[in-house]
Amino acid sequence: MTEAAPTSLADLRGEIDRIDSAMHALLMERSQVIETLISIKKTQASGSAFRPGREADIMKRLALSHKGLLPLDTVESVWRIIIATFTYVQANYSVHADISGGDAAMRDSARFHFGFTVPFITHEDARSVIRAVAESAGDLGIFRMDQGASAGIWWSDLIGADAPKIIARLPFVERPNHPAGTPVYCIAKPLADAAVREIVLYAARVERWSESLRHGLAEHLAEVSASAADGSHLSLLVAASGEVDQAAIRQALVPAGLSDFAEIGSHAARFSVKSAR
Ligand SMILES: O=C(O)C(=O)C[C@]1(C(=O)O)C=C[C@@H](O)C=C1
Question: Which of the seven top EC classes does this enzyme belong to (predicted)?
Fold first, then answer.
């Protein structure tokens, strides 16, 4: 028996064409499923098609099963564009970004997570992003989590039943040298039953800061994600496990002289991988 001839370049290109056609056909098939899903979800009426918990699950599953030559960065960005664009075709939306800390990182984050079909609109500060989202039908807003003290207590604009709420923390898949790794909060108008509550966020106003406050919060799986002076008081953005009762978090803040306490959003649990492979 003669040995099989070595695979030629033309054969390999034929394979690549076959795979490309199959991928394209699968994407078109995915869009047919989304067409049916539109009539089931009735999102055009409610204005928002986002299901951030579902998106976090898809991204996590993808990262966990990925292997081979293709960098995870590429796979993640391709799927982000697929999901963000399929969200867009269900109900058009724009992404409003606070670029007070610089345009480049926010633009990278928006393009990586939402692609180029979704319009990207810049704003001078977080408050203006929150206002734009509040006035829209179903837009998203993004801003850096690590804003300096000069940004003020931006999260206080998220207080109130009708005010926008934090719905995600990006990137979904954290790792060293992530190509769009700036940690950002993503906001939308309240998603009600569509929100994922693995981490719940609270706005709190206390009289003073203390190390015992940090310890008290840590005992209840909570931490301060941002803080800013508020007259003679201190305003905090507290991130806590959704499994912990709200009353317990509130109680941990009482010794610090708690005056205000309100939920301002929730997101999926953070998920990290060691590297981009
Ligand atoms: O699962 C849904 O509800 C969808 O609308 C589908 C889909 C997707 O493309 O996979 C799109 C938007 C949602 O945020 C989550 C997932």
Answer: isomerase
